[in-house]
Amino acid sequence: MSMKLFRGFLRDHLSITAVYFLSHILISIYCKFYISNSIQLLYMFSIYFYLFVIFMGFRLVRYVSTHREIQRLGDNVEVEEKGFTCGQQAAIALIYQIHRTYQDQIYEIKARTDNNHKIISQWIHNLKTPLSVIDLILQNHKMNGTPSGQALQRIEGEKDLILNMLSQMLKFFRLEHFTRDYTPEPVNLLESLRSVINSKRNQYIYNNVYPMVETGDENIIVMTDSKWNAVMLEQIITNAVKYSASKEETKYIHFRIEQNGDQVMLSIRDEGIGIDKTDLQRVFQPFFTGKNGRTHRQATGIGLYVTSEIARKLGHGLKITSTVNVGTEVKISYLSKMKESVT
Q1: pTM over the 0.85 mark
Q2: Which of 13, 82, 84, 130 has the fewest CB atoms below 10 angstroms from its CB?
Q3: What per-residue confidence (pLDDT) applies to 52?
């Protein structure tokens, strides 16, 4: 036991000591006038003193024990409440609760940081690929005299890939502060969908893919964040166009909006190459590109991950089904009333 701990014990028990000796002095004064035998007075004083020493010794043991148990909380060790007063038990329980909450937060932050570190590392690794391709194009142009127009066209394609990856990573970083940029509001789902579709007009024409929208009610209102919902729809539509592109025949992307009570379902179905059954369960994992990623170099594996995170934070359901060489269907479920909370 350290002197610091002992001094703390004396300080905490100063009031008890003062009351004890004050009462003893008062009794001694009384006895001086009514008990003539000084030996009896000394004997009484000795009894009081011994009882006080025994009492303070017992309190010191409990004081040191409590101090040690509190120190054990720093090692995340459960303490035994046996032998503690109700006040001490309440204090220890509160300290342990605060400590456990603090550790849970530390673990959560560490897990999120580790995940972000892995994603950023993988993203930087993927970013090196189009840069290496551009370097090879330039080398071939210098050494073999590749036509400038052809070289520039290929470089432009790699540039678009880099811009797409940068855009997706910016969306990923914005998700870290989602609640600061979240504004739930009534949104006309059809108008929001048409706005995103119209922004992709050139992409539709270039890839020979065209939209078909079907709804029984043009005034279906859902509660969502208009900006984040548009980001989610844009990514899904971009994937649908990219994997449905065909120069031989015209393909279509089918949009269907249905309302059932307080649930609104938006279905986006393409006529593309589809997703292999073995890859379907992993499409929302970061940087997973699967078999389609081997045939489509523009696949980054981050788009659907960001989409799933946006849907989760908005409180929207997200489900994907697919058949190889038939197409892929993504279903988003909305609530037509205000969500109570956002996680």
Answers
A1: no
A2: 82
A3: 74
